Write a sequence for this structure.
C-alpha cells in the first residue's frame, strides 16, 4: 500500500514538473514587446500633452508646397522631422478647403490657400504608420529599450485617431462641405512627389457648406 | 576593425560586410570579415578572437537580439566599441550605437499596399525570419498592425523559414498542400520571397498568388520589374555599413556621444517606382 502511494506520489511529482517545464506559445506572441511598458498610456499622454504645442505651429499646406517648389532643402530642413537617416520625412500640416469626394477609404479636399491650391487626401481608412508620432520630433527612440515598444506607440496613436478623430467627421462629412484639417504627411526627400498628398488627420472640423 | 556578420550565406549580408570593409579601408583602417553562420556560439568565438587579436572596434551584425548581448558587453568591457548594423540587440547600453533599418515602418507601408492589392479580402501565408531576431518581429508586427484590421484577410499559416531561400521553398510547398487556394504570401525577407516564388512556380500558381518581400535584394528588384514579385521594402545596407565604419572612425578620434539607436528609413519598391531603385539602394 505504502509502495503504491509512493509510486503515485512520484508520478504526480513527475507530471507536475513536466507540465511546468514546457510552455507552448504562438510565434507572434513571442517578443511582442516589454511587458512593463504601457504603449497606450504613453500614446495618450503624447496625444494630449506633447503633440498640441506642435500642431499649433503646423505649416499651411499651400505654403509648404510653394516652398517645396522654390527651396526644397529649406522646406525639409525647417519643417520636417525624421528619427534617423534616410529620405522619408514627416511634416505637420494644416489647411482648409472644400470636400470634392467622400470615398470608402478617403475624403478628397480642394485646398483654399493664398499660394498652392492642391487637392489632398484625408485618410479615413488606412490610418497607419509613424507620420503622427514622428512629425513633431518630440519622441526620441533612445528613450526606449526595445524598438517594439516604440513601434507600439505608433499603433496606439493611430488607434486614437481611428477611434476619436475619424468617426465624428466621417459620419457627417459630405461633398461640398468646408473643412479645416491638421495632420501629418510623409514625403520622400530624394524622390519628391507632391501629386497626391495623403494626410493622416489629427484634427478635423466641418465648418460649413 | 572586425566585421562580424550573422551569415555570409545570404547576399544581402555579404553586401553589408563588404561595404563596411570598403568604408573602413577608405578611412585608412584594416578590417577582417567574420561569418557567424547564424550561430551565436560561433559569434562568441569571433568576439573572443577579435578582442584577443587587438581589433580596435567591431562592426557587428548580431545573430540573436538577446543571445548576442553578452558578446557586445564583453567587447565593451574590454574597451572595444561595438557598432551594430541592421540587427538590434536588446540592450540600450551595451553597444556604442545601433544603426538599424526601420523594419516596422517599412512593413506598415508594404502591408497597406498588401491590403489595397488584395482589396481587403483573401487567404494569405506569412513566412517569418529567425525567431530570435528582433527584425523578424518588427517586420511581422508592422505588417499585422495593418492587416489584422481587415477580417476578410485570413492568415492560413505563419511559419518561420529562417530568412532562408531553400527553407522558404520547402515550407511553402508543404503549406500549399493543405492550402492550395491562397492569394498572397508575405515574407520577412527577399530570400524567402524568392523561395516562395519558386514554390509557387512549381505548383503552377505564380500568376495567381501575390508575393511580397523585404530587403531590396537584386533578384527581387528585377522580379518586381518583371511583375513576378509585387513589392519589397528597400533597405540601405551601404548606408548602415558606412555609418557604422564612420562612427568607429569618430570614436577613435575621441567622440563618445553617439545616439544609442539610429534608425534608417525603409522605402517601398513596387512596379510603379522600381525605376528609382537598384539592388540594396538607390540607382
Amino acid at each position: 500500500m505504502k509502495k503504491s502511494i509512493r509510486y503515485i506520489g512520484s508520478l504526480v511529482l513527475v507530471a507536475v514538473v513536466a507540465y511546468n517545464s514546457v510552455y507552448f506559445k504562438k510565434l507572434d506572441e513571442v517578443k511582442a514587446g516589454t511587458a512593463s511598458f504601457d504603449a497606450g498610456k504613453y500614446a495618450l499622454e503624447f496625444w494630449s500633452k506633447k503633440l498640441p504645442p506642435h500642431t499649433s505651429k503646423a505649416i499651411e499646406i499651400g505654403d509648404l508646397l510653394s516652398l517645396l517648389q522654390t527651396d526644397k532643402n529649406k522646406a525639409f530642413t525647417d519643417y520636417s522631422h525624421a528619427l534617423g537617416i534616410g529620405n522619408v520625412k514627416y511634416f505637420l500640416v494644416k489647411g482648409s478647403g472644400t470636400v470634392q469626394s467622400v470615398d470608402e477609404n478617403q475624403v478628397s479636399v480642394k485646398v483654399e490657400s493664398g499660394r498652392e491650391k492642391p487637392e489632398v487626401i484625408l485618410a479615413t481608412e488606412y490610418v497607419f504608420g509613424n507620420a503622427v508620432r514622428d512629425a513633431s520630433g518630440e519622441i526620441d527612440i533612445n528613450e526606449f529599450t526595445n524598438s517594439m515598444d516604440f513601434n507600439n506607440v505608433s499603433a496606439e496613436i493611430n488607434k486614437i485617431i481611428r477611434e476619436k478623430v475619424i468617426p465624428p467627421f466621417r459620419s457627417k462629412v459630405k461633398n461640398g462641405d468646408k473643412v479645416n484639417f491638421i495632420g501629418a504627411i510623409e514625403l520622400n526627400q530624394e524622390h519628391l512627389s507632391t501629386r497626391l498628398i495623403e494626410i493622416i488627420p489629427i484634427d478635423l472640423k466641418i465648418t460649413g457648406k | 576593425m572586425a566585421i562580424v556578420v550573422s551569415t555570409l550565406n545570404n547576399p544581402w549580408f555579404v553586401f553589408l560586410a563588404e561595404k563596411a570593409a570598403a568604408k573602413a579601408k577608405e578611412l585608412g583602417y584594416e578590417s577582417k570579415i567574420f561569418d557567424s553562420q547564424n550561430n551565436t556560439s560561433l559569434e562568441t568565438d569571433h568576439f573572443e578572437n577579435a578582442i584577443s587579436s587587438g581589433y580596435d572596434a567591431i562592426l557587428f551584425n548580431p545573430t540573436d537580439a538577446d543571445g548576442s548581448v553578452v558578446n557586445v558587453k564583453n567587447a565593451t568591457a574590454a574597451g572595444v566599441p561595438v557598432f551594430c548594423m541592421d540587427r538590434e540587440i536588446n540592450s540600450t547600453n551595451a553597444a556604442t550605437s545601433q544603426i538599424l533599418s526601420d523594419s516596422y515602418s517599412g512593413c506598415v507601408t508594404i502591408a497597406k499596399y498588401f491590403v489595397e492589392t488584395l482589396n481587403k479580402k483573401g487567404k494569405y501565408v506569412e513566412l517569418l525570419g529567425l525567431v530570435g531576431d528582433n527584425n523578424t518581429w518588427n517586420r511581422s508586427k508592422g505588417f499585422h498592425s495593418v492587416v489584422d484590421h481587415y477580417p476578410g484577410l485570413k492568415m492560413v499559416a505563419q511559419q518561420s523559414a529562417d530568412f532562408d531561400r531553400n527553407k522558404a521553398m520547402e515550407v511553402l510547398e508543404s503549406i500549399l498542400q493543405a492550402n492550395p487556394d491562397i492569394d498572397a504570401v508575405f515574407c520577412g525577407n527577399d530570400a524567402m520571397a524568392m523561395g516562395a516564388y519558386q514554390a509557387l512556380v512549381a505548383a503552377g500558381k505564380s500568376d495567381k498568388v501575390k508575393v511580397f518581400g523585404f530587403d531590396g535584394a537584386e533578384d527581387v528588384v528585377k522580379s518586381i520589374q518583371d511583375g513576378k514579385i509585387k513589392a519589397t521594402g528597400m533597405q540601405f545596407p551601404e548606408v548602415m555599413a558606412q555609418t557604422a565604419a564612420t562612427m568607429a572612425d569618430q570614436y577613435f578620434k575621441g567622440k563618445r556621444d553617439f545616439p544609442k539607436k539610429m534608425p534608417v528609413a525603409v522605402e517601398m519598391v513596387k512596379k510603379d517606382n522600381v525605376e528609382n531603385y537598384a539592388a540594396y539602394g538607390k540607382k
